[in-house]
Amino acid sequence: MKHFLRMFVQVCLYFYCKCLWRCLKFVVRKLTGQCELQRICYNTKPGAARTMKIEASLKGSKSKRLQTSVNVHPDAIEKTIDDIMELKRINPDVNPQLGVSLQACLLQIVGYRNLIAEVEKLRREPYDSENPQHEEMLLKLWKCLKPNSPLKARISKQWCEIGFQGDDPKTDFRGMGLLGLYNLVYFAEWDTEIAQQVLTDSLHPKYSQLSKAEWEKKKFDKAIGYSFAIVGINITDLAYNLLVSGALKTHFYNVAPEAPTLTHFQQTFCYLMHEFHKFWIDEDPLDIMEFNRVREKFYKRILRQLQNPEMALCPHFAASESLINM
């Protein structure tokens, strides 16, 4: 009975707050002469703060047309903006900047949804050693990370040198499918110097770029390395979870002037790999069995950072001037 009463009270409070909120929005519109979308665009700077408010406003609208506007095809965004302006009785000639701002927000919102679908497709596609493209990418990973050490055979213990578990890496991609390979290759190809340094440090952490004085200051009496490729696949899983949970919206809405793409996701992976490497050294784990503890602590730190609406994880991939001026 108590449970039923608690549920009843919660339902009543929900509808009361919902009605109160709609009444408040109606009063504010009458006082300001602006709908909620206008107030958000005019009073919130571009980026995650604005886009996330626009997304919440559209999803929470009582109009089905506004609710479904966040799920349209990218090619239909311009018409969707016209429909929103018409529904809200906003004159585009009097408010030309509003349409531009709404379009930028919708491109990000729709793009994020499409990025999840693209990433999920790669994650679900298994590595196929009979596929020449898959094999080519795998060999490219080796060449980028070990340019001066030719691979003697496709099946070889040499793969352990870049952090795979056995003599055939294909079995290590099961958890993340092709997504893990795509991310590792991107890191090795486009951030080669850092990727090679992280690989070297993972094999010989005591000889990392920390100076002797820094090692002594941190009182490291040991140096626990890790398997570079396996950790890369694990960090891919971390990045994937951040994406599908919506946590990465803060970052992507701040760095992507329009729709976030797979490249943005891969750049984020590079950042996470580099940051996790530094975090691992700072944590100074007793042994590799502490990996899950360190990973979880790192994951929580990233989540806390992403709670800041102005957060951009990769400052060197900052938003373009076109976004700043919208």
Automatic annotation (TrEMBL):
Q: Entry's InterPro entries?
A: ELMO_dom, ELMO_domain-containing
* Superkingdom to which the source organism belongs: Eukaryota
Source organism per UniProt: Zonotrichia albicollis
Q: Where is the signal peptide?
A: none
Transmembrane regions: none
Q: Which GO terms describe its molecular function?
A: GTPase activator activity
List each copy of the ELMO domain by range. 133-306
By its UniProt entry, which Pfam families does this protein fall under?
A: ELMO_CED12
This chain's protein is named ELMO domain containing 1
PROSITE patterns from the entry? Answer: ELMO
